[in-house]
Structures are given as structure tokens and as C-alpha cells.
Amino acid sequence: MPYSRIRLAIIGNCQAEALRSILYRAHSPFEIVDLPEYHTMTPANTASVIDLLDSADLVMAQRVSPHFRIEELRSTNLRERLGEKCILWPNIYFDGYF
Description:
The chain is of the alpha/beta class. The protein has helices at residues 14-25, 46-55, 75-82; strands at residues 6-11, 30-33, 58-62, 86-89. The protein is globular and about 40 Å long.
């Protein structure tokens, strides 16, 4: 019997895009949901992004400010809406080359 792939939504900035890219190339068992990066989103994107997040089995969300311009996509609001299927991870910054 074929297994059902886990629908994974990864939302964030450039780190989210890098993670999506790695999972695509690794032929992971996930069905990756394509989402725009936080910094490119506008309030006009909100409903479609929320629909995609709701449809996912698992959501990995990069933390954003409690003052992020799109209230529904703030980390605390995503966690409240999505519950345990939402995993938050912090921004990771490396400036060792600078």
C-alpha cells in the first residue's frame, strides 16, 4: 500500500528558502508547500498563505517580530492558530565572514 506524503509548509525568510531547497534536492518524503518569503509578503497574500498553512500537516515557521506588519503571520498568532503542528525556529545569523 503506498504511503501518503507529509504536506510540509516552511514559512520564513531566506533560511526557509534554503531549507526548502535542501529538502527538494534530498528527495525527502515531504510534499513541500511553496510559500513566499516573509519579506515579500503583503496583506494581499494573507488569505492564500493562511489557506496553505491550514492545509499542511506540519508547519515550520521562522520566528518574526511580534510587530510584523501582517498580524496573522506573527509567530505567536501562527502557533495559536496551528497548535502543535507548528514548529517555530529562531533566526540564525552568522557574521563570521564580515
